[in-house]
Amino acid sequence: MDSKIAADSERSRHTVRIWTLFWLAACIVLAVALRSHQLDGQSLWWDESLSLQRAQSSLTDILANHIILTDGVTQLPTVDNHPPLYFLVLAGTIRLLGSSDFALRFPSFAFGILLIPLMYVVGRRLLSVDVGRLAALMMAVSPMYLWYSQEARMYTMAPFLSLLSFYTLLRLLDHDTQRRPVWAVVYAASTIAMLLTHYLTYFVLAVEVIVALLTAVRNSRLVRWLWPLVGVFAVAALIMLYALTIMPPPAPQDGFAFVPLPILARDVLNSFSLGLSVNVDEVIFLDLLFLLVALTGLLATGKEGRSPLPPALLLIIYFAVPLSLTYAAGYVRPLYMNSRHLIIITPPFYLALGAGLAELSARRGVFLTAAGIMLLGIVFSWYQFFANDIYHKDDHSAWGAYLRANVQPGDIVIVNPPHIYELYQHYAGSTMPWLGLPALADPSPAATDAILNRLSAQYRNIWLALSYTPPWGDPGRSVEQWLDRNLAKTDEKDFHSYASVVRVSRYATRPPHLLTMAPIAVPADITLAGLLTFLGYDPVNVRDEPGRALSYSLYWRVEQTMAQDLKVSLRLVDDQGQVWAQTDDMFRSIKAGQAQQGALLREDTNLVLPPATPPGSYRVEMVIYWAATGRPLAPAGQSEKISLGRVEVIRATVAPRPAQLPLTIRVDAQGNGLHLLGFRMATLSFGQGDVLAFDAYWQIERPPQHTYNLQISLVNRQGSIPVQQLLPLTTTASSASAWLPGSVIRGQYRLSLPRDLPAGTYALRIELMDAPPGQASVRRSGIWRFLPASADLTRLVITERERSFAIPVMAHPLSANLGNQIMILGYNTVPGDTARLVPGQTISLTLALQASSTMDTAYTVFVHLIDDNETIWAQQDVPAGGEHYQTTLWQPGEVVTTTLTLKLPSDMPATRLRAIMGLYNPASFARLPLIGSLPATDYVPLFDSDVTR
Predict the structure, then answer these.
(1) Is the pTM of this model over 0.85?
(2) Which domains does the chain have, with CATH numbers?
(3) How far apart are CA 571 and CA 584, in angstroms?
(4) Which residue(s) pair with 860 in the sheet?
(5) How much is the pLDDT for 253?
């Protein structure tokens, strides 16, 4: 009988061990998946750049806690507020893995994961297996550890070493512990490592001293095992003495201020419960639920476990002593800025939560309700962290990319303040001249002004790279103020910032208004709509790589003062007419009502080359259009596109990472040496007859034997293929260097969907034509390749269009046939009476159009108000049916309305106007003829109006 009981007991223990291993594995897998997701998705913020700077320093500087600041001229040694151990770990990491954002955050991620099994071990030792499991789960799902596992700082390493130190002390003081010398060595090593990671861990050492003394009072036989604590205390005193001798005096602007206890306690409770990615005022009721569960756990752990003191007392001491000491220090020198400075006391909080959940599990309904609400709050915080950019770090990656793309020869970058130099170097990495201001040697306004005056005489443009996270670097924003006062701002872009300002501005040192016109590299004489004459351009560079920009100085003469603002659009176009890049900016040198007739102007503008643009030869086209309406200014009788010559896109020096690509759908698929990274699609839902337009990004794994064509198919649920089209992998004539292993190439694809394509869900599939058998299909990688649907790269929804064939009642019915393509059935106007108009008046005109047949051309409809001399006084041109329902989608007999708005100039004279409308092919500007008209015309007359002043 005894042997049977023993065997059953052993089987039970074995089952518990298996179940516990499974539980811990599940917790770790969940935490790894959660915390590794987009580990490098957000940019480094300023504190993280300091980690990088220290990790890249010499061993001597790391150990001395030095940070060497530089402004490009002066180097200024400073002392960091953190001890060296974390930076030694980070230095080893970047020497092994490089200095990518992923590598920089990997130590934080790793220590955050290691905390999970350690929490289980401590929970099991102090209380029970169930508490250990639940505490490990709370650590795995913690929103606070999600945040700090994705930050290149020491805020996961410090609590890991603190908990390890606390646990080894408990083992050392346990009266049943074997091998105390081993635990003594581990305790000493982990505690010294803890103290060398963050100075606030000294408060955990205070916890350990209190625990050790209380244990010695209860069990005098353990006094002789306090010698490791004495030795550690001696080392700690030496570390603190060194720190106090080198630590700079407290600065009033360093962000630390006295925090009242209620605010501190609320901040800690919210952060430990739901993290930093929630508004504490909105979730306080959830925070109180976490507190109630934790208090329940403390009340349930009054009995003694396998620990030298009652578990509840240990948890209270572990939590309350550092919290109290941090608060008390605020009266002398504030140590608390936010909850990261007390992250070292998260373990006792999660242990209490685990104990509380274990206690509530006996009452199933209460347990499920409390756990469910807590889980919903945690998931909400996860969602906020990933999806709500309010909680995202400063977007220095986009900030640096913008600088890297746009700064050109003859420009200089001002890094403001110079304390952010590491961020600039990490993300911009520009080879262009740079200088940090205010200067470290003399930050006075007078010295700053003198330097900026000198730079203005030396450079073509001054770029201000501003990140204001350390506001004490330039508290008065003196650099920006001087540039705003003295130079013309020609570009400005703000980037997301969590709690600061991140901005790039460009200032022209040459005024845009010219007294005389110097020789132009490429002269021209093109007048646009009688308003503006293009005199030519100076190309700053006509050869660059993706991620950079082509730069132009454009020269103009004003023929008439502009009543509205203009925009300039530069486009990179291949020989097939495909647009690969487009940059649209405000015309800064011409402001509405400001540029006077005869003025000579220079407009500096850039065309940014997107990542993965295929290398090759392109042409650049320019279009000038009204900012308010989008209507282009065109030379009389010509296209609105003005050629700016040919350019060459060369192979990227460094291939872009997937995170740098504008992917809307990430795909991990492969086929015959090509790796499909993903797609960029504006939508996954299309109407019948739409054009399915998307970009695909391909990484070259091995050079192809020939130029591939792609067979792109849509497959319905029955396996039929109603849409299939053969397209080239890329339409540019790329050089062989484009296909080197590691290169990333972008392809643009357009499929015309049939007008009668049945509505439903379709799978998108791609095959490489002429590839070897078995390698033609582009299929998903990883575990997806074993599934039958691995060839389905994404799914699209085709919706049935709502069409109208009813003839509408129009105030002004017509029956005009344009080219046997479209019938004009009539129109309505607002105002209803158009016989008399006044200058500045706006007219809205709605046309009823009927398709006479199917059309292969997307026609544009125009309405002009012209006088007897054929002068156009108001005009609008829009796609017939609108941008999303062009004439290529119409069916015979279908009726579609189109609305246009015209505004008369406020300064026009009294005259008589005629309203005419028509349709034309936007590619050739050929108008549809009015069938049956004598004499032959290509427009439909609508109404006459008298304009009176």
Answers:
(1) no
(2) 2-36+81-389 (no CATH), 513-649 (2.60.40.770), 658-799 (2.70.50.60), 812-947 (2.60.40.770)
(3) 9
(4) 879, 920
(5) 47
